[in-house]
What we know:
single chain; 238 residues; alpha/beta; Undecaprenyl pyrophosphate synthetase; globular
Amino acid sequence: MDGNGRWARRRFMPRVAGHRKGVEAVRAVVSRCAERGVGYLTLFAFSSENWRRPAEEVNFLMQLFVRALEEEVARLHENNIRLRVVGDLSRFEPRLIDLIRNGEALTAGNSGLNLTIAANYGGRWDIMQAFERMLQAHPEQRSGFAEADLAQHLAMSYAPEPDLFIRTGGEQRISNFLLWQLAYTELYFTDSLWPEFNGAAIDTAIESFQQRERRFGRTSEQVQAAAAAELGAVGRHA
Ligand code: IPE
Ligand code: MG
């Protein structure tokens, strides 16, 4: 979610006004994804590098996070949405950690959209913490690990690898998001600033995703033959 500050500056408002407006975009996007039956939506709210911002802006973001949790969790729950927060929470104030844990516990039984907020998250941090936990789980082993041995310790091990990555705000980079999991994810970059992103913008991004051919290393001919065979199988079972 990028472009809050620029959205505000263009309107001669303080950057934090863009963050406040950004929460409205979050609400719109969550509800559109829930309506569409998206299984997993993960929002990169605060990276491990964002602590480098001016203290007032960091404080504002933390207060905004607290307020959003206070105000939105009940509605998430009513809509059968399951909330999780991933990242290194140890630097957050106890009030925020409590709100997170309570929101997660309240919504733990929900079966609709899986909403994850990445907060004080970094892809490299995630790989390193998974690596340490993998070693702790196999104290005797020095080599011969499989990818799955590590992947099961990643912060989002409960979720499949993402199909689609969306970055708003015109920048075309990953910025230390889900590094391990993005290996085969379709990347979508848009100049829209996050506060102006909404349900229609999600639809446009998903349309773009649906145009793409995902080959996972194979040739286009192989992919098309497999799709045709699957259609045939569906036809025979119908
Ligand atoms: C994204 O908007 C919000 C957070 C990282 C918390 P920015 O604050 O990065 O907005 P720009 O990039 O300065 O416009
Ligand atoms: Mg930015």
